[in-house]
Amino acid sequence: MKMVNTVELKNRTNALLRQVARGEAVIVTRRGKPVAALTRLTDAGLEEFVLRYASGTGAAGAAEGPQPEAPPKYRYMSLAAPFGTLFVAYGPGGPVMVGQANSPAAFEREAERFLGSVPVADPEPPADLRAQVLKTVRDHAPYRGPLDLSLVPPFERAVLQALRRIPPGQVRTYGEIARAVGRPSAARAVGTACARNPLPLLIPCHRVVRSDGKLGGYSMRGGVALKRQLLEAEGALPALLPIGR
């Protein structure tokens, strides 16, 4: 079974219909809730459908009762960080997106663009997940839990996995990460992967700097000033030559 939102249905109608023709059910969602289902009809099913609607009973049959809602694909929680409110979206595979926003609604809109569906606020997020995220955000401890990188392209995924191995208090250059993933000439592409990191802090892209000792950019709200703040809190600024310009 495949789940798509209404935007995907509009943009990929033909491809989705081919999947239905091969026998895969497609559930269409809007704002994270199922609103329609596309399934292949057998010859018998098609005959029954035509007979029911020809006799005028189709509408009644379609209203036999509400169908149970499918669980949302992603949920999210909010937590207080030293630099503002942080939102964390997660699914069965772990956190999938971290962001800052002025309100839950603003985060939901941002998340929908990346996730393809609107995450649902979780009034009781998993206690162990919340504790792990807080420990990483507040104590700068490495995040050891699983992370969902299924929406990230392969090269960027390899870069993000390499970033997870940088311990607190240390930095790496974009070129060093490029060599670590087997693409020594791809330092610029590594910078792009860092800028697109959907899980900042949990994946410490702030620990990647330029080879001349300058900090480089940072995609989270607060930009380079926040990057400097994080590295200073971790004791990594002395590792930069010249120090963190």
Describe what this molecule looks like in 3D.
There is one protein chain. By secondary structure, this protein is α/β, with parallel strands linked by helices. The protein has 3 domains: 2-62, YefM-like fold (3-Layer(aba) Sandwich); 75-139; 154-239, Orthogonal Bundle (Arc Repressor Mutant, subunit A), CATH 1.10.10. It contains 10 helices and 9 strands. The protein has helices at residues 6-11, 13-21, 43-54, 58-62, 104-115, 127-139, 154-163, 174-180, 187-195, 223-234, and strands at 2-5, 26-30, 33-38, 75-81, 84-91, 94-99, 120-121, 172-173, 208-209. A 4-stranded mixed sheet has the order 6-5-4-7. A 3-stranded mixed sheet has the order 1-2-3. Strands 8-9 form a two-stranded parallel ribbon. Strand 2 and strand 3 (33-38) form a beta hairpin. Helix 7 (154-163) crosses helix 9 (187-195) and helix 8 crosses helix 9. The protein starts with a strand and ends in an 11-residue tail after the last helix. Mean pLDDT is 84; it is low at 59-63.
What tags apply to this protein structure?
YefM-like fold, 3-stranded mixed β-sheet, 3 domains, 17% strand, Arc Repressor Mutant, subunit A, 4-stranded mixed β-sheet
